[in-house]
Amino acid sequence: MNIILLGPPGAGKGTQARFLCDERDMIQLSTGDMLREAKDSGTEMGKVVADVMARGELVTDEIVIGLIREKLGGDKKGGFIFDGFPRTLAQADALGALLAETGETLDAVIEMQVDDNALVARITARSTCGSCGEVYNDHTKPIPADGKCSNCGGTEFKRRADDNEDSLKQRLMEYYKKTSPLIGYYYAKGQLSSVDGLGEMSAVKADIAKVLDS
Ligand code: AMP
User: 13, 36, 122, 205: which one is catalytic?
Assistant: First the structure.
C-alpha cells in the first residue's frame, strides 16, 4: 500500500508517518528529511538547497523528484508513505508516472486538516529527539524532566532552523499557493480522504487507520 500524507507544515504528517512505519512496516519517504540530510552532509545539492529551505521556499521539482525516484527503486516493505511530497502539481504528475513505471499504485491520499493558528503554535514550540526523531512540544508534550527521550533515552534534542515565525509564514504561503491545489487534484481522481488533524495524536492515528482499512 502506497499513500500520501498531505497537509501544511505542522499538520502532524511526520508523527503519523512514524506510527505507520512502526505498525504497518511501511517506509517513510520525507523529502524534507532527505534535503536536511543533504544539507547537513554538505553535498553539492545540499549547498544549493540550504538557503531556499531557510527562507521557507520550495526547492525545485527536479531535485525532489530525483530524490524520490532513487528511493522507489529500493526496499518497499509494507509500502511507501510520501510525507511532504508531492508539493506541486508537477510533482504529483511525476509521482503518478514513477509509480506507473515501477508497477506500483497510489492507494490513498490522506489530507490532514488543521487550522493555521494551531500550526503556528505547534511549530514554534516543536523539537525532536536527535536520535530517534520523537516529536516534543514545549506546551503539550515537553521533553521529560530527566532530559531523556521517552522513546529511546537519547539526550540530544533539535529544533529545526526553519521553525521560526518568518520561515513559517513563507512555508504556509507556499503551501496555499502551490500545494493546496493537490487537494482538488486528488479529489477529482477519487483518491482523497480527509481527517481532522487537530485532535489527540491517538485520535488522528485511529482516523487514518480507518481510512487505510476501509
Ligand atoms: P518539511 O520537512 O517537509 O517541512 O520540508 C522542509 C523544507 O524542505 C520545505 O520548506 C522546502 O524548502 C523543502 N522541501 C521539502 N519537500 C519538498 C518538496 N516536495 N518540494 C519542494 N521543496 C520541498
Answer: 13
Query: Is it the case that residue 122 has pLDDT exceeding 90?
Result: no
pLDDT of residue 105: 95
pLDDT band, residue 118 (cuts 50/70/90): confident
Q: What is the pTM of this model?
A: 0.93
Q: Pocket residues for ligand 1 (CB within 6 Å)?
A: 9, 31-32, 35, 52-53, 56-59, 64, 84-85, 87, 91, 162, 171
In angstroms, rounded to a whole number, what is the distance separating the alpha carbons of residues 75 and 113? 30
All cell numbers assigned to 34: 532527505
Cβ pair 2, 79 in contact under 8 A? yes
Residue for grid cell 522513546 = 151
Residue 66 in grid coordinates:
530525483
Residue 69 pLDDT more than 90?
Answer: yes
Calpha distance 145→139 (Å, rounded): 13
What does each C-alpha distance from 89 to 142, 161, 185 come to in angstroms?
Answer: 37, 27, 8
Mean residue pLDDT of the chain comes to 94
What DSSP state is assigned to residue 196?
A: E
Question: Do residues 6 and 182 touch, judged by C-beta distance below 8 A?
Answer: yes
